[in-house]
Design goal:
Elements lengths: L1 H20 L8 H12 L3 H24 L5 H22 L2 H24 L1
Length: 122
């Protein structure tokens, strides 16, 4: 009986540690990002195709930045990531109508405010 309790406690402890290590958000795939924009901005099929290409290129560039950063220094990666995000945003804005672009800018501002609030909480 003691062994059973000990084994259960061990399994529970290991599972708790594994959940703690896996914290954080999963990155959205380019297709998921495009689908989110399609719903929120009412994108046409042509815009969806172009956005998917843009987000796929961004994901590949982001992955190459992460691969190049073998030291794990996130602060060193931030300028390159910011430039990549700006370039992607500019490309997305180029394929949107003026009304869609206005709504997209509002979404980006809300997302930035949410991120800033989350950072203030830490």
């Amino acid at each position: 009986m003691k062994k059973l309790v000990l084994v259960c406690a061990f399994v529970l402890g290991i599972s708790a540690l594994s959940f703690a290590q896996g914290g954080g958000r999963q990155r959205m795939t380019p297709e998921q990002t495009t689908a989110r924009l399609k719903d929120s901005l009412s994108l046409t099929s042509d815009q969806v195709a172009k956005a998917t290409v843009i987000f796929t290129a961004q994901a590949k560039s982001q992955d190459s930045l992460r691969t190049a950063n073998t030291g794990g220094d996130r602060a060193a990666m931030r300028p390159a990531q910011a430039a990549l995000r700006k370039a992607t945003t500019d490309k997305i804005l180029a394929i949107l109508t003026p009304d869609q672009a206005t709504l997209y800018k509002k979404q980006l501002a809300a997302q930035a405010a949410k991120m800033a609030a989350r950072q203030q909480g830490n």
